[in-house]
């Protein structure tokens, strides 16, 4: 898994590209505090190599909790900037700091 951050010079926005390599997944989405944990709002596109990829514009100078939803199972980003415990989910969430 990978996260790529591209800060825009013209406005306080960061283009964040999420990439999730997978061999046999059918659906992957990124859910988090930036999209109200809505699985339908940020689906990732399946590439020819089998991985999933998508880009989200997020406001800079903030941090966001998120997880991947891979065929209905929550998965954390191994390369996240940090991890935060979430009592509601009973698990850790990945954190991205911009």
TrEMBL record:
One Pfam entry for this protein is AMPK1_CBM
Domain AMP-activated protein kinase glycogen-binding intervals:
23-96
List the InterPro entries.
AMPK1_CBM, Ig-like_fold, Ig_E-set
Q: Entry's SUPFAM superfamilies?
A: E set domains
Give the highest taxon in the source lineage.
Answer: Bacteria
State the protein's name.
Isoamylase early set domain-containing protein
């Amino acid at each position: 898994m990978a996260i790529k951050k591209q800060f825009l010079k013209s406005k306080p926005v960061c283009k964040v590209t999420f990439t999730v390599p997978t061999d046999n997944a059918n659906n992957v989405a990124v859910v988090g505090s930036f999209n109200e944990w809505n699985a339908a709002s940020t689906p990732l596109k399946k590439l020819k190599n089998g991985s999933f990829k998508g880009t989200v514009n997020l406001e800079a100078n903030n941090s966001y909790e998120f997880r991947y939803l891979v065929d209905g199972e929550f998965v954390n980003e191994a390369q996240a900037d940090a991890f935060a415990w979430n009592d509601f989910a009973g698990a850790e969430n990945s954190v991205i700091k911009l």
